[in-house]
Design a protein that fits this description.
Layout: E1 4-14, E2 22-30, E3 34-38, E4 48-54, E5 62-73, E6 76-83, H1 86-104
Antiparallel strand pairs: 1-2, 1-4, 2-3, 3-6, 4-5, 5-6
């Protein structure tokens, strides 16, 4: 599935770290397998992150247990989802279907 424009908030933090530090960013483009994020804190490629995506219309954030940064440059980075529960995958697909339907209207 291709990435589509779906602006929404995302909170993220590094996995497998001793210190707890969390950041907030803005998703520009989203797909069922990854997303592009704008943030002041841009992790380097290869970093593993845990995400909470605040899809429009959802009461609770959609958790992504593990994602890997594949590209990072000047306040923007792209991640590929590595570990997503079936429930979270369903939420992502529903959110993408809604956004696609709105864009087509």
């Amino acid at each position: 599935m291709a990435m589509i424009e779906l602006p929404c908030r995302v909170d993220y933090r590094r996995t497998a770290t001793q210190e707890f530090c969390e950041w907030t960013g803005r998703i520009d483009r989203l797909s069922a397998t990854g997303c592009s994020i704008q943030s002041v804190q841009t992790p380097e490629p290869g970093a593993r992150l845990e995400l909470r995506i605040y899809l429009p219309g959802n009461a609770w954030p959609t958790p992504i247990r593990q994602a890997e940064v594949v590209w990072s440059h000047w306040g923007e980075f792209t991640v590929e989802f590595l570990d997503v529960s079936m429930h979270a995958e369903d939420e992502l697909r529903r959110g993408l279907a809604k956004a696609s339907a709105l864009a087509a209207a």
